[in-house]
Write a structure and sequence with these properties.
This protein is α+β, with helices and mostly antiparallel strands. It has one domain. Helices cover 42% and strands 22% of the residues. It contains four helices and three strands, in the order αααβββα. The chain has helices at 2-14, 20-32, 40-44, 78-81; strands at 48-52, 60-65, 68-74. Strands 1-3-2 form a three-stranded mixed beta sheet. A hairpin with a 2-residue loop joins β2 (60-65) and β3.
Length: 83
């Protein structure tokens, strides 16, 4: 369910209907709606998160990595969400 919402959000961003700032605000709302301590994979609805030192502003959802969805996330978010 959450994964579907994020896919829709990404599609809208790619079509130019939503700006990055708006998308990040929606992510923050989604994260805030979860209980404290909820790990990022649960928030994003993916089984795996790969932390990246080179990404700073984006969360990439990868629909199929060896048969499973995943996310590539800035390492700066690791302190907040773990996972």
């Amino acid at each position: 369910m959450i994964h579907n919402r994020l896919e829709t959000l990404i599609d809208e961003m790619l079509e130019g209907q939503i700006l990055l700032d708006e998308a990040m605000a929606e992510f923050e709302k989604l994260a805030a709606s979860k209980p404290a301590g909820t790990l990022l994979p649960e928030i994003l609805g993916v089984p795996r998160v790969n932390w990246s030192d080179s990404l700073v502003d984006y969360i990439y959802l990868v629909p199929d990595v060896i048969g499973k969805s995943a996310a590539i996330v800035p390492v700066a978010l690791k302190e907040r969400f773990g996972g």
